[in-house]
Amino acid sequence: MPSSAGYLITAIAATVALFFALWWMFVSVGDEAPWIPAGLAASVVLLVALSAREVVMRRAWTRHLLEHGVHEQKHNVGDKQDGSKRAYSTASLSSALRAIQKQSVAADAATNSAESHLDIFHLCRDYAASAEEALQSPNLPAEKRIALRTGQERVRSLQKHHLLTWARESSRALTSEAQQRARTSDKIEAANKAVQCLDSALQFYPQEPELTASKTALREYIASVKVAHWVEMAERAAFKGHYRRAIERYKDALFYLTRETENDDVRLAGEQKLQQEIETLQTRLRHAKKETGASEEE
Fold first, then answer.
1. Domain that holds residue 239
2. CATH number, position 284
3. Given a cut of 50, is residue 46 above it in pLDDT?
4. Domain for residue 9, yes or no?
5. Number of domains into which the chain is organized
6. Radius of gyration (C-alpha) of the chain in whole angstroms
7. Of 22, 49, 100, 196, which has the maximum CB count within 10 A?
8. Contact, 181 vs 157, CB < 8 A?
9. Is residue 63 part of a domain?
10. What's residue 136's pLDDT?
11. CA dist., res. 193 & res. 32, Å (int)
12. Distance between CA 212 and CA 160 in Å, rounded?
């Protein structure tokens, strides 16, 4: 475990240095009370440093319990030593379960904590694996076996909850980011990252309807971005009188619409509209050719 005293000394030294640096900067610009903003900024930095250490050390301690609680019993010799190691193993798993439940409550209460949900998911998987290894012991008392089974059921429920929460919050944030991007390629890149988050969760829960529905909605969004891009290109070409180029762009939009749109009603309505635009441009192109030919004859 890292030294708490060393971390605190480093954090306090950095905070003091920040305070004097900000104080000097505010004095140089003529602030009448430079110590107030400097002190506030330094206090915020110190609080963030202490809070970050608390979160990191709590997760590290939980992982320590999971990694060393069960595996130490492999090195015992004799029945008496074996029994004490098993007792230590079940005790450490019980402590790990309490730590996971505490972190679960904290993650649910926090906002913008998608990564913390993913961390808890991994901790739950580690706990379930360690508990399963402990249950393989033939000499494990019945009451401890029941306790481990109960802990596994609780952890599996938390595991699913936090993975789904992570996938939902991460995909929602990436979708919002995609909608705010200006370039089409950036929109598609952010949306594809959201799909990857959902795919990661679907590997564990392939029958979860929430994940499937979210992935379908994202694929529809990506398709709509591509179609809108090519439609815009077609409209620009048609406005400039480049009808042949506009027809090709509309065909590109039609290609992405038919290949990537899963909603039948949306696809059919879009196909009909694009076909109408293509036919209109083909009519204009024929008229333009006739007018060109007539002017050449004159």
1. 223-293
2. 1.20.58.80
3. yes
4. no
5. 1
6. 31
7. 100
8. no
9. no
10. 85
11. 49
12. 15
